[in-house]
Model the fold of this input.
Amino acid sequence: MLDDYYGNRANYGHSGLQREQNLDKKNFYLGTVVQVSSREVTIQIDNLSLLTHRLLRQSDLVPNTINYYVTIDSISGIYFGQVVQNRIPIGASREFLSDESHKEQVYAEATVDILGLEGAGDRSFRLPGFSRPGVTEKVYLANGPVIEHFVSSMELHIDEKDSPDESDDDNIPNSFARLSCFQNEALQLVSPQTLFDRHLMVVGTTNSGKSTTALSVLDWLVSAHKKVLLIDPTGEYEDSFTEDDKMEKLTLGSDTVVDSGSLSVLDWSMIFDCNENTQQGTLSDAIRSLRYQAKFRRFGPFIKQGRIITEVQNELSKVGKEDTSFDVNLLPEQITEEAVEEGKGVEKGKYTRSTFRINNYEWLREKILNQFDNTSFKKFFRNSRTNKNWKDLFSELDRFANKPKTSLYVNASHIGTTDGIGGMVVDLISNYLLNRPHKKGCAYVIFVDEVHRYAKRMTDQNSFYSGLTSIAREGRKKGIFLFLTTQNPNDVSPELLGQVGTLIIHRLTSARELGTIQNYVSDNTISQIMKLNQGEAILTSVNLLEDLSLSVRACGRPHKNDTPRL
Ligand SMILES: Nc1ncnc2c1ncn2[C@@H]1O[C@H](COP(=O)(O)OP(=O)(O)OP(=O)(O)O)[C@@H](O)[C@H]1O
Ligand SMILES: [Mg+2]
Done:
């Protein structure tokens, strides 16, 4: 059965590995099993020269180290394992070892972690369960076809009609990464289903390669005609995709606006970060007054001071549910106008200025003014019907969500690159998408880079925006999958982190972050995470039986991520 992989299955597999010469399996021979325990298997390597780099393998797999794969030809089937320790007896002198003729006399010993078993009659590897190889069984270096077969067996939930992808064109990269033990060859690694059966998160310290990995994954998704919504608060991905990729582009505050009327009072209070009770009430009153002004086309703020209270209330009751638009620019002024109270004595029944309230409302007014001053934020809240060059963000989101195989890029950098604006835009979009009806067959991925910057509110560092968390919880049923990158997994809400099914882990160094990740990976993996280079990562997923070490293939699309050199 093992011979199948080393000889006859020349056309096995998807990638370049299949082109490897058909070499007899004796060229891959390593040694025999000498000890078996439930944890691991020890093999004796029959002669030291077997550990030398084998040129015929045309790859830099060196069997005198660790992390390479082996197969064991057993009566119960084929075992697949990874070498985790390698040693020769201590005490032999260097001179003795370097003499070619002595190599025959030294036995090396390797410890193998058994990862999978393909029993007779099985079509793929599965977890070994209680089975283990027997002593004296023969061990071989795993070749390309076996490894590829193993990796494809590791993926659960493969949807047959979806997996090799209805690629219309041959140039589609079949993966975004390769297994790191095979430097020269790409492997068909995982299907989009494996990564996005639940939400995907890329973690790593700054400069570890998160954004580069993200772009490679996006490139792979877009080439496979999957739908992607890229929310970009900093403009980093501005030039990465073009019309040719079926990716439409929106620039908030420039060609795309939102009508003030399409936001609820709650949305506004989130945007201005109102504290729960009093400020939200004041803002709500102010918006109501401005809606009245807009409905009856009056200029300026709504004046309450000096007017009869019942009259004012009568007027304001004419604002109906459908009268939602208002002029955002007037908000600060209107807040001041709201600072009135019922007069005393002759003024009874009339509104008079309340100094107490003026002082109280000042804080809210300042917040709003601040938001206006620092950004071209006001340009974002305009009515798209007043200028035919303006598109309405929500209609565009609807269009995207209903149209198969198209992607959308939302650039929010023109309305300000502060984290507060980014957070607001991400939250606005995610809440909108979650609450609209889902169209079948139009599942999509929402990508947000550096999400730790946009997950928390600016004013209250202990509270998280609700949009992303709600999508994490309920999005999957509606075909919305999150794809996030973050430096610190603790900076997203615990509920969100709990919903992440797949992690791509780049280098992490701080103990706190490693601690968070610990639940997701094996102990062996944790020690490797600190030593990863740029672009190297561990892939761990509820849909994979084993963690995989990846080298990410940078996709070469334009990406504004240069780190300036000092
Ligand atoms: N797979 C890769 N192959 C080659 N170079 C890479 C790879 N991944 C990252 N790099 C290089 O490493 C540098 C940092 O990568 P990147 O910007 O993706 O890191 P990051 O984790 O997103 O950092 P930041 O936290 O600053 O956003 C870039 O200059 C990039 O060219
Ligand atoms: Mg980055």
Q: What stands out?
A: The first helix runs from residue 2 to 8.
